[in-house]
Amino acid sequence: MRKIWTIISLDVYTTFTDRSLLLLMFATPLALATIIAVAFGDIASGAGAPIRDIPVALVNLDEGDNGQIFVDLLIPAQNGDAERPAPALDCGDETPPATTEDNILLELTDTVLVADAETARRQVDSGRYSAAIIIPPDFSAGLEFTPQNMNVDPPPVEVYADLNRPISSDVIRSVTQSIVNQMLLGQIAIASTYQTLFDQGMAAQSLALDPCVFAPAFGPDAYTVGIAQQSIAEDEEPLNLLVIFGAAQAVFFALFTASGSAASILEERRNGTLQRLTVTPTPRWQILIGKLLSTFSNVLLQLVFLFIAFVGVASALEGELLLIWGTNWPLIALMLLVLSLAAASIGMIITALAKTAEQANIVGSVIALFMGAAGGAFFQIGELPPLFEAITRLSIVRWGESAFSTLAAGSSDIWLDAAAMGLIGAVFFAVSAVIFLRREDV
Amino acid sequence: MQTIVEARGLVKTYRRNDGTEVQAVKGVDLDIQKGEIFSLLGPNGAGKTTTISMISGLIKPTSGDALIGGYSITKQPLEAKRLIGVIPQEIALYPTLSARANLEFFGKMYGLFGKELAARVDEVLDFIDLTDRQKDRVDTFSGGMKRRVNIGVGLLHRPQLVYMDEPTVGIDPQNRRRILDTVFRLRDEYDMTVLYTTHLMEEAQELSDRVGIIDHGDVIAMGTQAELTKQVGEEDRIIISLGEEQIEEANLEPIRQLTNVQSVRHEVIRLDALPIVENDDEAVVDKRGTGSMLAVRSGQTTETIITITALGGRKVLSQIITALNGIPIQSVEVREPDLEAVFLNLTGRALRD
Ligand SMILES: Nc1ncnc2c1ncn2[C@@H]1O[C@H](COP(=O)(O)OP(=O)(O)OP(=O)(O)O)[C@@H](O)[C@H]1O
Ligand SMILES: [Mg+2]
Questions:
Q1: What is the DSSP code (8-state) at residue A328?
Q2: What is the distance between the alpha carbons of residues A386 and B343, in angstroms, rounded to a whole number?
Q3: What pLDDT digit, counting tens, does each position of B176-227 carry?
């Protein structure tokens, strides 16, 4: 036992006296997660829609109906349904009216109608609005498919944005793009349907086809579905973004620590100290367990530090103590332990299979990047095809993020996550132990 | 005499990456007596390190076993390892730790803790003469100082048996002298047994109580130096250097005709192929083992050497020179039977080849 402890202390000491390693282990994930979280959302508000009330000027010069759809989407009806502007297509009562609460865009922006484009641009320049959306006069005409106008090619909607507010401008630009895209999609679908019918010699009927048939699929309410993806983490329980990105980044960088720390076995093999350890009267399994536990300790210390630091960052932004991980201490501790164990054994298996420390580091980085991407360390992942969905289950970043989000939301339903990570840890460590103990060259 | 190392039929077969097999050690028997300095002498690649690795428990023998102080290294490795201090061929230390921290770490791995550990570390630091630099990181040390720490680590637990694998390779003459003196001190002051490997005949000759000669994975001779040299008989070797001058085989015929001359052979050595350290006499002796230092210094690129074995070498020397019939001679050396001669006799090759 004492010898295992000796090995652990040596490795932890070596790691924590290496400045460049400390930078990678602590400063980088802390900074990255904070930057991503701040960029994506207003942390201090802690609210669900992280970016809200972006001031936007909307200039609707369109002579057709489609410009009005923009207005409907971005500007709330003043006095409930009564004052609600007429829908673009009047198809009777089948289309349920969009309520203000349904429409995330209403929260996202604070849009005001402005009469002419010049004024709007000037007011963006003066800083009053973050962006101006200018819908050209013949927008609907260009967009709408008719047997006379078979090319759906609307003139572009102009987004005049304040470059000093890059995030707001980007959001507005992509919102606009996505509304236009959906309109195009709708029209193209109509167009191709017409085309099909036309080709089948059903031109007569098709001319009479009621566009309202398509309306429920492409009406204003349908648009909100796609646009909702522009916002982040629209949950009932609004989560602090630092929870999601913090947990993901912490686990992501823990994987680097794990593979780097486990690869020290290979470095020691190269500089001969492993051989030296082997000729001391120490059983091989003790050396192996020592190395696993020192990797585990390095990762655990890193995670604990980062999790505390994220509480610090969140509290500093909020101006008061904000326990972003929740207060279920035993489960938080449990998760940190299984997470460290899983990361450590992933590091061990990489080391067991690699020939040199360099190789282990490269493979380790690739695996960390994959797990990071699959676990949402860099961007939110939405719906995935089943195959990818299955692959992401190998990512401990995903399990870690999911478990900590659950705990942060006040739930304790993390047993699946804990079990998954425990399993990953146990299997990988067992396999790497077999490889190590059978390896000839020490 | 008590035997402390008794190796029987040690074989090690390595499998290369391309699937081929190399038999690095082909059935080595060794008997090392307690309290002696035993040298394992052999050229590069002979299997010295592989043998040491097997009898220290670093690698498993493909077959065979060794008893260390009565414990089997394969079946009771922990007991056997406690008796052994290994000083590896390459420096094996944690570069970012201080000398003291390195010693303390390995001391703990040998089961030393607390006051005893501190006392042993102090003792070893004093022995390797690094007490004043003990707090400095090893990567700030000179090569010679690192070697000394490397040796120190193997001595912490006061082993009965010390393995030193070519500890003087790449070392300047002054530090080499120091290491050779250390070997004597280990035997004489600490009653340790030393197994010392080298490819240098001179080192084996100076240090050893007994010598094992290893070549191509086989121990081809083992015994005291007197016992070994007796095998080659009473013949002296006469080594004649002709400098860059070439010689025809026919010109050696008159020498062969002389009574008492046993064998004559000549070879041309390419000097530029030898790694020569500027102003380092040792580097040349290392490779050549003959008195041709001058030649190397004058920028000569080849050297023709005639090696003659003869009974009573000094007496036939003048006849030999006469027989060379005016061919210019650069230097002449007469050697009494030594380990080099034994190796030559057993393998037909010089140790340096
Ligand atoms: N891990 C290995 N894999 C394959 N072959 C090996 C391995 N280690 C050593 N060998 C081969 O075994 C033979 C003996 O090597 P060894 O290192 O024991 O020689 P040595 O006498 O110590 O030589 P040197 O004086 O150069 O240190 C060499 O041919 C070497 O190439
Ligand atoms: Mg060697």
A1: -
A2: 72
A3: 898 999 999 999 999 999 999 999 988 999 999 999 999 999 999 999 988 8
**Would the pTM count as exceeding 0.80?**
no
B304: helix, strand or coil: strand
Q: Please judge whether A276 and B84 are an interchain contact, meaning their C-beta atoms are less than 8 angstroms apart.
A: no
Only one residue has tokens 């006799």, namely: B345
Cβ of B14 closer than 6 Å to ligand 1, yes or no, is: yes
Report the C-alpha gap between A307 and A329 in whole angstroms.
Answer: 12
Backbone angles phi, psi at A360, to 5 degrees: -60, -40
Q: Which two tokens stand for residue B54?
A: 């097997």
How far is CA A237 from each of CA A50, A298, A327, A331, rounded to the nearest angstrom?
Answer: 13, 33, 16, 19
Ligand 1 atom with the shortest distance to the CA of B53? 18
Best residue among B18, B40, B48 to mutate for probing ligand 1's pocket (most ligand atoms within 8 Å of CB) is: B48
Burial class (CB in 10 A: 0-12, 13-18, 19+), A2: exposed
What number of residues does chain B have?
Answer: 353
Considering chain A, what is the average pLDDT of its residues?
75
Residue with CA closest to ligand 1 atom 31 = B45
CB B95 to CB A271 under 8 A?
A: yes
- Ligand 1 pocket residue status of B212, Cβ below 6 Å: no
ipTM above 0.85, yes or no: no
**Alpha carbons within 13 A on the beta-carbon side of A346:** 33
- Name the nearest CA neighbour of A345 among A434, A269, A277, A250: A434
**CA contacts within 13 A on the Cβ side of B195:** 35
Could you give the C-alpha distances from B22 to B16, B216, B343, in angstroms and in order? Answer: 7, 11, 23
What distance in Å separates the CA atoms of residue B49 and residue B46, rounded to the nearest whole number? 9
The helix/strand/coil state of B222 is: strand
Q: pLDDT digits over A409-439, tens only?
A: 888 888 888 998 899 899 999 999 888 888 7
Q: With contacts defined as CB-CB under 8 Å, which chain B residues touch A1?
A: none
Does B294 contact ligand 1 (Cβ within 6 A)? no
Query: And the tokens for B337?
Result: 């039977």
Look up residue A233 and give its two tokens. Answer: 């983490």
Contacts of A136-140 spanning 24+ positions with Cβ under 8 A: A136/A61, A136/A62, A137/A61, A137/A62, A137/A63, A138/A62, A138/A63, A139/A61, A139/A62, A139/A64, A139/A66, A139/A67, A140/A62, A140/A63, A140/A64, A140/A65, A140/A66, A140/A67
List, as one string, the DSSP characters of A342-400: HHHHHHHHHHHH-SSHHHHHHHHHHHHHHHHHHHTSSS------HHHHHHHTT-HHHHH
Q: Taking a C-beta distance cutoff of 8 angstroms, is the pair A280, B109 a contact?
A: yes
- Cβ atoms within 10 Å of B326's Cβ, excluding its own: 7
